[in-house]
């Protein structure tokens, strides 16, 4: 299934039903007075977050949504029925903007969040409202008021507890597949992951959602590689996991570049809690001091970064392919979440 995270759609709320211009008719009553009722209210358009959805793909073929109109007023001063709201279900994490002005309208962060995005029109008044001492038989009734119509830009920003960040082919997809319930496409070539992937991590009674963000290259914040289209999916994660290839000639330079691209996109991302993984430990030969030497050199060079590498930053050596040291990785990751995770909130609200 194609992953679609940005679309534009049109919505129109229902028009109010027209008022009735009816006159009372009854046997032996020669000239009954006006008894036209009011029209019903047009339907609102409501956006609602649905945790079972993960993409905006259905809006590629369905781009306009019209809510039903209110019913016309009836005789005997009976009101027309109000129309039921039109509910459009969206993935949790969807940001809604006015497509014409760019104005931010709302974002659906939690399951079942809902917002009226277009209001239905009020029903018109029946002719009974217009009777006067001068005009006791008004033939006029109000038309219903038109419902609001607007164009919306929908942007999905995935909601995850932690996100994997690294160069293409750093082994993020393999890592996600072995520690979670997700099995993304895996290959030994750059940009294996062309869409963000999500997996649920389980440790005892705890749960968290881990996102694999497609590989970042230099210039991603300006659109290079898979660029801006996927950087937005890291915005909401609480913990960033930098995945570095242990065989890299200069892992500190990789780390610097990754953080620079994140900071260019959003300065706040650089200050999020993070941990560093040296992956592919199976591809190098080293003795007992190798990890210690690599970590010491990385920390030494990290002091010169802006901002510098945190003194207490967690640095772990793993092999996703051979599933080495993953238990320690999970223990460290879960220890960073002192409060309820997004995954745990989803389970609680089901």
TrEMBL record:
It comes from the Bacteria. It is found in: Cytoplasm. SUPFAM superfamilies: Obg GTP-binding protein N-terminal domain, P-loop containing nucleoside triphosphate hydrolases. GO terms for molecular function: GTP binding; GTPase activity; magnesium ion binding; ribosome binding. GTP binds at residues 166-173, 191-195, 212-215, 279-282, 319-321. Its main location: cytoplasm. It is an enzyme of class 3 (hydrolase). Monomer. An essential GTPase which binds GTP, GDP and possibly (p)ppGpp with moderate affinity, with high nucleotide exchange rates and a fairly low GTP hydrolysis rate. Plays a role in control of the cell cycle, stress response, ribosome biogenesis and in those bacteria that undergo differentiation, in morphogenesis control. This is GTPase Obg. The gene is obg.
